């Protein structure tokens, strides 16, 4: 496979592949590059929806011109034997996929950073350092992820710093939060149908939507609670 830095032509071909709906593996095959190269390139330049080859090329030039810090200490050895490049690839792959599902870009980055960290827990300072963003950006992303039930806040042992934690019940809490939002949306649809008139086409459409959301919400809660009870009993 081709090695070395991506060229402007490579980036144009990546953009063309994304526009055509090709997956990262297919784009990488056509370029003769590892899939991780394409994944990392797209993730660090706005994700598949916002990738711009010209801007990506300029960003690459800026990174290449940054002075190297020769006095920096080497990264500590990974206890699992993983290389920093492998961890970075995992982070960027997950960030890209989360953003592709509709999660905001910064929330995707914060969630992915927590997910690929073995402890599943990071402070604001650690997130700022890893993602190279402002504390305000992290705070906004954390607020969104909390509202989705995906993370929670905890105090560290000293009680002075907040940590953001995934938790073993993360998906359980997140899906219950989704079910609750469906309930609220169904109630709103019914109120709107009453205002418009249940017998009108718009009112009937809203009533039907509310019934669907109620049914899906009930089944989702039942499935989640059944899985949680089964998982807890076998843990």
From TrEMBL:
Gene3D superfamilies: Winged helix-like DNA-binding domain superfamily/Winged helix DNA-binding domain (1.10.10.10). Residues 27-84 are annotated as: Disordered. Residues 102-162 form the HTH marR-type domain. It holds the Pfam family MarR_2. One of its GO terms (biological process) is transposition. Transmembrane segments: none annotated. One of its GO terms (cellular component) is cytosol. Residues 5-45 form the Transposase IS30-like HTH domain. It comes from the Bacteria. One of its GO terms (molecular function) is DNA-binding transcription factor activity. PANTHER family: TRANSPOSASE, TRANSPOSASE INSI FOR INSERTION SEQUENCE ELEMENT IS30A-RELATED. This is Helix-turn-helix domain-containing protein. It comes from Lentzea alba.
């Amino acid at each position: 496979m081709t090695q070395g830095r991506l060229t402007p032509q490579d980036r144009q071909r990546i953009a063309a592949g994304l526009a055509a709906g090709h997956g990262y593996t297919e784009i990488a095959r056509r370029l003769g590059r590892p899939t991780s190269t394409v994944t990392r390139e797209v993730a660090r330049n706005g994700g598949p929806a916002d990738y711009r080859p010209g801007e990506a090329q300029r960003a690459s030039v800026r990174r290449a011109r940054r002075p190297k810090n020769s006095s920096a200490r080497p990264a500590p050895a990974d206890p699992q034997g993983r290389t920093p490049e492998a961890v970075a690839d995992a982070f960027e792959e997950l960030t890209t996929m989360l953003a592709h599902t509709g999660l905001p870009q910064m929330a995707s980055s914060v969630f992915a950073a927590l997910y690929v960290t073995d402890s599943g827990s990071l402070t604001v300072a650690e997130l700022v350092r890893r993602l190279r963003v402002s504390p305000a950006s992290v705070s906004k992303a954390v607020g969104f992820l909390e509202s989705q039930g995906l993370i929670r806040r905890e105090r560290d042992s000293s009680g002075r710093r907040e940590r953001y934690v995934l938790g073993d019940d993360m998906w359980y809490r997140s899906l219950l939060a989704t079910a609750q939002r469906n309930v609220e949306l169904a109630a709103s649809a019914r109120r709107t149908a009453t205002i418009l008139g249940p017998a009108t086409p718009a009112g009937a459409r809203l009533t039907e939507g509310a019934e669907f959301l109620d049914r899906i919400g009930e089944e989702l809660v039942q499935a989640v609670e059944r899985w949680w009870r089964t998982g807890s009993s076998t843990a």
